[in-house]
Amino acid sequence: MNAQSVLITGGAGFLGSHLCDRLVAAGHDVMCVDNFHTGSKQTIHHLIGKVNFEVIRHDVWLPLYVEAGRVFNMACPASPVHYQSDPVSTVKTAVLGAINMLGLAKRCGARILQASTSEVYGDAQQHPQRETYWGNVNPNGPRACYDEGKRCAETLFFDYHRQHGVDIRIARIFNTYGPRMRPDDGRVVSNFIMQALQGEPITLYGDGSQTRSFCYVDDLVEGLMRLMDHEGEPGPFNIGNPSEITIRELAETVLRLTGSRSRIEYRPLPSDDPVQRRPDIAKARQHLEWQPGVALEDGLKETIAYFKKVVKQ
Ligand code: NAD
Ligand code: UDP
Questions:
Q1: Coil, strand or helix: which one is 259?
Q2: Residue 122 CB less than 6 A away from ligand 1
Q3: 171 neighbors 287 (Cβ within 8 angstroms)
């Protein structure tokens, strides 16, 4: 992408901050928009003072009047713990945020990428999940605020595209982990590593036989960058790592890599927790020539090293 004005909503979050790094380093003029709901100034602290980086405290529920050539719409709490703590707010962020940022893109003639999610597939009945699958989502369960909010956002993106000609890209992001996740984020990788490092019980929900496929953050950011630059097919594209693991195996791997003597403590499985999740990334491979390159153990080692520093602080 030629140097241009890039707006990132949710830029102070886990993924957004890594995206800011990548775009600032590439010489773009980067505007990081965030209300610091789950994000933090710490994640972008090192970028403050750079001439091509600025922070705008703003809630995407409200319209925003700035000029941008590209927009990454990342704003939305992503951890079940956080998005379920204020579900009405989650729906507003997903839906009003999409409307406001699509309006901005329409006004500016900008290309806009939506951070969608594997949650649009819900508790999937097809495995692995391909982009053509319409999903199996409970519309009124505890995860619905996020799942249906993100599904409605995809609808809005395609309607703005068809009705107003807005230049859209849709990434369906699968479970991603890495440095800068919040210690209290509540998602499984950060929970298990923090618990292992502090000698606390590893909280395994259900019997641990449910599966996920974990993507390291650097791979994910590369996928988003390629999608943003991609001409033609707007998506949706699954962006994730197809290497599938049970959550029990993940707990055992974290225990081994940290050398922790924490015990595993079984807790009830949250309702509507998807049983099996793995992306089919054939479409991203074909159109974006993208696939993840970081093996789970290597990514976990980087993430453990990061959380060790956090624990010492
Ligand atoms: P995160 O919670 O770390 O980051 C979200 C950011 O959005 C935070 O900085 C938060 O303060 C900000 N935000 C929330 N509501 C806002 C609002 N109303 N106005 C302005 N800013 C707001 O989560 P993340 O893991 O970095 O996820 C980023 C995006 O990617 C989200 O849209 C999420 O749905 C999507 N996603 C992430 C994953 C993953 O595994 N990390 C998987 C699927 C989809
Ligand atoms: N999980 C767990 N212990 C935890 C946190 C999560 O066993 O402390 C499980 C959770 O029930 C789910 C999986 O790990 O089956 C992934 O959960 P996460 O919240 O990271 O993301 P999800 O993919 O469910 O949105």
A1: coil
A2: no
A3: no
CA-CA distance, 36 to 64, in Å (whole number)? Answer: 16
The ligand that comes nearest to the alpha carbon of residue 203 is 2
| Nearest of 158, 306, 283 to residue 223 by alpha carbon | 283
CATH topology of domain 5-245+252-312: Rossmann fold (3.40.50)
203 bridge partner residues: 265
Q: Please provide residue 17's backbone torsions phi and psi, each rounded to the nearest 5 degrees.
A: -70, -35
Contact (CB, 8 A) for 191 and 203? yes
In short, whether 248's Cβ falls inside 6 Å of ligand 2 is no
- pLDDT tens for the chain, 313 residues long, are 666 899 999 999 999 999 999 999 999 999 999 999 999 999 999 999 999 999 999 999 999 999 999 999 999 999 999 999 999 999 999 999 999 999 999 999 999 999 999 999 999 999 999 999 999 999 999 999 999 999 999 999 999 999 999 999 999 999 999 999 999 999 999 999 999 999 999 999 999 999 999 999 999 999 999 999 999 899 999 999 999 999 999 999 999 999 999 999 999 999 999 999 999 999 999 999 999 999 999 999 999 999 999 998 8
Listed by start position, the domains of the chain span 5-245+252-312
Q: Where are the beta strands (DSSP E) in 157-252?
A: 167-173, 176-177, 202-205, 211-213, 215-216, 237-239, 244-246
Radius of gyration of the chain measured on its C-alpha atoms:
19
Out of 74, 92, 101, mutate this one to test ligand 1's pocket (max ligand atoms within 8 Å of CB): namely 74
Q: Residue 43: how many CA atoms within 13 Å on its side-chain side?
A: 25
